[in-house]
Amino acid sequence: MEIIEFLGGPGLFLLLAILVVVVVVYSKFKNRR
Fold first, then answer.
1. pLDDT in tens, 1-33
2. Phi-psi category of 19—alpha, beta or left, where left has phi over 0 and alpha has psi -120 to 50?
3. CA-based max dimension of the chain
4. Distance in angstroms (rounded) separating the CA atoms of residues 5 and 28
5. Could you tell me if 7 and 15 are in contact, meaning their C-beta atoms sit under 8 angstroms apart?
6. In angstroms, rounded to a whole number, what is the distance separating the alpha carbons of residues 12 and 18?
7. Where exactly are the transmembrane stretches of this chain (predicted)?
Protein backbone atom coordinates (compact mmCIF):
# COMPACT_ATOMS: atom_id res chain seq x y z
CA MET A 1 0.00 0.00 0.00
CA GLU A 2 1.43 3.36 -1.01
CA ILE A 3 -0.51 5.11 1.74
CA ILE A 4 1.14 3.08 4.51
CA GLU A 5 4.62 3.74 3.08
CA PHE A 6 3.78 7.44 2.75
CA LEU A 7 2.61 7.67 6.38
CA GLY A 8 5.73 5.81 7.47
CA GLY A 9 7.89 8.65 6.12
CA PRO A 10 7.60 12.46 6.03
CA GLY A 11 3.90 12.01 5.27
CA LEU A 12 3.29 11.32 8.97
CA PHE A 13 4.57 14.78 9.93
CA LEU A 14 2.51 16.33 7.13
CA LEU A 15 -0.62 14.55 8.37
CA LEU A 16 0.01 15.72 11.95
CA ALA A 17 0.59 19.30 10.75
CA ILE A 18 -2.70 19.27 8.83
CA LEU A 19 -4.51 17.82 11.85
CA VAL A 20 -3.15 20.57 14.13
CA VAL A 21 -4.19 23.28 11.65
CA VAL A 22 -7.71 21.83 11.41
CA VAL A 23 -8.06 21.77 15.21
CA VAL A 24 -6.79 25.36 15.56
CA VAL A 25 -9.11 26.66 12.83
CA TYR A 26 -12.05 24.75 14.32
CA SER A 27 -11.34 26.23 17.76
CA LYS A 28 -11.16 29.78 16.36
CA PHE A 29 -14.50 29.42 14.56
CA LYS A 30 -16.07 27.87 17.67
CA ASN A 31 -14.84 30.72 19.91
CA ARG A 32 -16.17 33.39 17.53
CA ARG A 33 -19.78 32.28 18.06
1. 576 676 667 777 888 899 999 999 999 998 877
2. alpha
3. 42
4. 33
5. yes
6. 10
7. 6-26
